[in-house]
Design brief:
By secondary structure, the protein is mainly beta. The chain contains one helix and eight strands; from the N terminus they run ββββαββββ. The protein has one helix at 60-67, and strands spanning 2-3, 8-19, 22-36, 43-52, 73-74, 77-82, 85-90, 93-99. The strands form two sheets. A five-stranded antiparallel beta sheet has the order 1-2-3-4-5, with no helix packed on it. A three-stranded antiparallel beta sheet has the order 6-7-8, with no helix packed on it. The radius of gyration is 15 Å and the shape is elongated.
């Protein structure tokens, strides 16, 4: 996850995607806007656009319920760990850490 400014960012998804016994190639970039929702580190991320590589053969019907389609939003918590790292967590999913080089 890369934050390009105080309101926008993007993340890259590369790998494989298993669905109904089949494995697909997943190669896409999702762009988002974000804004703070309250004083307890809750934010709203809205997916604004998506670039899908020619190598990506994952059906939209398989990814939309799982990978947040364009126009949809999610409410994660962002918590700064130090000057270079942010902990991102969702209510129903694991967390991950974004760190600057």
């Amino acid at each position: 996850m890369f934050f390009t400014n105080r309101r926008e960012g993007f993340y890259v998804l590369n790998g494989t995607f298993a669905h109904n016994g089949q494995t697909f190639n997943l190669h896409r970039t999702k762009f988002f806007s974000y804004r703070r929702k309250n004083n307890q580190d809750l934010y709203e991320i809205i997916i604004t656009r998506e670039i899908i590589s020619n190598m990506d053969n994952t059906p939209k019907s398989a990814t939309d319920p799982v990978l947040i389609p364009v126009g949809e939003s999610v409410l994660p918590r962002f918590r700064r760990l130090d000057k270079r790292s942010i902990l991102v967590s969702l209510i129903y999913s694991p967390f991950f850490i974004c760190a600057k080089e």
